[in-house]
Amino acid sequence: MCSPATCETCGKTTWTGCGMHAAQVLSDVTPDQRCTCDGRAAEELWP
């Protein structure tokens, strides 16, 4: 199961875990507060 995490680079919210539940974990996080530092761009999780 995935869980929220804080990015050490930008301080925004990201996730940790298998990735299958990332969209669910971040569903309450506004797009401007989601980390995109690691290449898991928003397009991958939110069409």
The total tally of domains equals 1
Number of helices, counting only DSSP H or I runs of 4 residues or more: 2
Any idea what the shape is? Answer: globular
* Sheet with the most strands, sense and barrel status: 2 strands, antiparallel
Describe this structure in words.
The protein has 2 helices and 2 strands; from the N terminus they run ββαα. By secondary structure, the chain is α+β, with helices and mostly antiparallel strands. A two-stranded antiparallel ribbon has the order 1-2. The mean pLDDT is 84.
Keywords:
two-stranded antiparallel sheet, alpha+beta, 47 residues, 2 helices
Task: Summarize the topology.
Blueprint: E1 3-6, E2 13-16, H1 22-25, H2 42-45
Antiparallel strand pairs: 1-2
Overview in brief:
The protein has 47 residues and is of the alpha+beta class.
